[in-house]
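Practice record 12: protein with FNR.
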Amino acid sequence: MTPHISAARASIPPNLVSVSDYAEVAKQYISHPIYEYIAGGGADQLTLCRNRHALDKIQLLPKMLRDCTKGSSALRFMGESLRHPVILAPVAFHQLVHPQGEMATAQAASSLETTMVVSTLASHKLEDIAQNLDSGKWFQLYFQQSREFTLSLVKRAQAAGYSKIMVTVDASLHGIRNRAQRAGFVLPEGIEAVNLRDRPPLPQKTLAPQQSIIFQGMMTEAPTWQDIAWLQQNTSLDIIIKGIMHPADALKAQQMGIAGIVVSNHGGRALDSIPSAIELLPKIRQALGPDYPIIVDGAIERGTDIYKALALGADTVMVGRPQLYALAVAGALGVAHMLRVLREELEVTMAMMGTPTIDDITQDTLYQSDY
Ligand code: FNR
């Protein structure tokens, strides 16, 4: 057994009934520094708290006596069939919490017919994860300093059967991760970004005294819109940009012919003091029109959260941390259970709202109160 984790359960205890229960119970299965790395947000966690708060503030206004017997939470999205509007967000290093890591998550995703976005920083080879994944396979790309190496990741993903490339653009710098730092988090020995093993070494760079380690140092590796255009020219796969917050950026992505965006603040882990994706969503949907693919994430833990996101203009949501908590507690079984809870809660919400299909979920099902 890896020293930083305890053996996961082989069954789901009866008192584990909601997604947020997993966050609490997971503390028993993961070491404190790792828990802090996963749970923590950027700096003072203003954005992390806002993600939850913004969802809690929204209210639903149900309609009664509708026939719901033909209801379904399935949908078509970006040319693919989704069993429900819930996708597993790209999350680094699943082996931090379970020895089978992404392989177990992929097994759970397959059994619940859920699309999984595999991170560049996965702790298993992207080809091996793809082999274990019978449902939707998307690959999340962090640009690497070498374009050639970046493209080799994309080509490997395409060859392994991944259908979309989700480029994350909001975490070129880690931001300020005080909570993980205070807990002394370091990547345990034996866990690594295996897909980056062949990455060419970064060229040695010496900064002049007046130069900044941030601007002239780290940011020289960060991608720009030009790199996105280059990627478009070099892959036939659909590109989705993850981490868009400003409506002007959303419009730029659309105008460039990017296939879709994820409105996201990286689960409150990157820049602090930015709004929740949920707050920005109506403005971005309005800017992009009704048909442009929009995914949203951040603090999605309840069927009602998914419903609210869809009502405000998202086509589907992604969940991040709950995957790791569920994986820590009960391995593949835990992740499958977590996904089932989300789907069932969404369907209960749709039925009780009198909106039995995804298309029925519109903004006028929400209630604005001055209370
Ligand atoms: C992430 N996220 C992330 N995003 C990404 O594009 N690539 C990655 O490798 C990671 N890694 C990662 C690790 C951990 C521990 C967390 C918690 C998150 C961000 C993730 O995709 C997603 O945007 C957020 O997690 C969504 O918020 P919730 O659901 O965690 O509140």
